[in-house]
Amino acid sequence: MKRIFRSRPIMTEETHRATTVEIFFDLVFIFALTRIVLLMGRPPTFLSLAQGLILLLLLWTTWTIYTWVGNLVRADAGLVPAGAIVAMAAVFVAALVIPNAWQHGNEVMDAPLILALAYIALRAINIALGLHAAGGDRQLRFTQGLFATTAILAWIPLVLGALLHGTAQTLLWAAAFVIDFSGGVIASAVSGWRLRSPSHFAERHGLVLIIALGESLISVGTGAESAVTRGPVLLAALLAITNAVCGWRLYFKETAMVARHGLETAPSAQRGRIATYAYSLAHFPLVAGVIYGALGVEQVLGHLAHGEPWHAARLDWASTVALYGGAVLYLTGRLLFLRLAAQSAPRTQMVAIGVALLLLPAARNLPALAALGLLTAFLVALVWYEQFSVGSRHPVAGEATPA
To answer: 353 vs 274, 325, 326, 339, CA distance in Å?
Structure first.
């Protein structure tokens, strides 16, 4: 035990790959995000969508810092894996209480306070591992110190929000995110982050997205319950997995490769900035889009599973916004990701975002199954267009990329 605590971190190499510890952490992390679907769906309202967004932002901030730590030092050696395991426990506890994050009871430790304390533990471990990974690098220690200062300040509104109820809790937790997030912005602008392995960083973000796409299908089982053998329910489930496949295709087939090439070929001095904005920031709408889309699918299946005729079951505005807004967020994240990493993106990606927004009010007036079918048809058409249209294809690795 003494040897572990006295051990120095093992720096990563440029060819470093994701470790099993990091993949395990990602699985627990995405489990926590999928629990936010339960929070927002009881029932879906614009307030619950906003509350879910606050939790998504808070959790994503912590995940990005753990990813930076794993890029600086090996996550499977020395003190880092021990810290990661404790952090996983904190994420798991947070995940268990997330559906009740705005429900207060008579207990001394109710769900909001447990969630706040679990988040504080997660960030405290995060700060300790970050300083450990910085080692003797003065620039990195200064960067970590700036981020740690605002993170600790954010704990004040976080705990106060857990003790207060209702609107005060929502506003204070939103303030906690703003304070915590501002630390990352200030640290990036003043000191900057150091990226050791572009391939590892790109791989981690791709892994967390593919896990999110896979685990989002849990919403199919949640919504369908035991009625999956009914024709409309089974059709909705097949549409849901088609949407997930389209999400995979739209990111991994070409976008991820082009962006990764842009990161790997960028000058060393610019890699930290590209990684911060293209990956740490632009990937948030990608993951958030998957979560909101999962909520929308769950609501469609819930209507159909509870015996409503497929032609009569309609989504309310909040559920429709979740379903189509999830697609808009995903497509927006993909556009930002490509522009920030490769300095270029096909104009058709902006058109696709506009089309998805235009379809939203039409979907509100369609039966729930038809609304899901319309979204699926749009995504399949988009995949087909990008696959076979020369004008929409991204430049491949090695080709010149227009500014």
So the answer is: 23, 10, 11, 15
| Alpha-carbon dihedral 125, 131, 133, 137, rounded to 10 degrees | 170
Name which of 266, 279, 283, 137 is nearest 200 in CA terms. 279
Orientation angle between helical segments 231-252 and 368-388, nearest 10 degrees: 30
Question: What DSSP string runs through 286-336?
Answer: HHHHHHHHHHHHHHHHHHHHTT--TTT----HHHHHHHHHHHHHHHHHHHH
Contact 202, 256 (CB under 8 A): yes
Rounded (to 5) percent helix, strand, coil in the chain: 75, 0, 20
Digit-coded pLDDT (tens) for 319-358? 999 999 999 999 999 999 999 998 888 888 999 999 999 9
Rounded-to-integer distance, Cα 10 and Cα 225, Å: 47
* Residue 323 CA: distances (Å) to CA of 240, 331, 375: 11, 13, 8
Phi, psi angles (nearest 5°) of residue 101: -65, -20
* Tens-digit pLDDT profile for residues 157-180: 999 999 998 899 999 999 999 999
Q: Half-sphere exposure (CA, 13 Å, Cβ side) for 7?
A: 18
Query: Angle, nearest 10°, between helix axes 46-72 and 166-190?
Result: 30
Distances, alpha carbon 359 to alpha carbons 50, 97, 147, 324, 376, in Å: 22, 35, 41, 8, 12
Burial of 229 (0-12, 13-18, 19+ CB in 10 A): exposed
pTM of the model: 0.91
Which of 132, 103, 97 lies closest to 117, judged by CA?
A: 97
Provide the b/e sequence for 356-373 (b: ≥16 CB within 10 Å).
beebbeebbebbbbbbbb
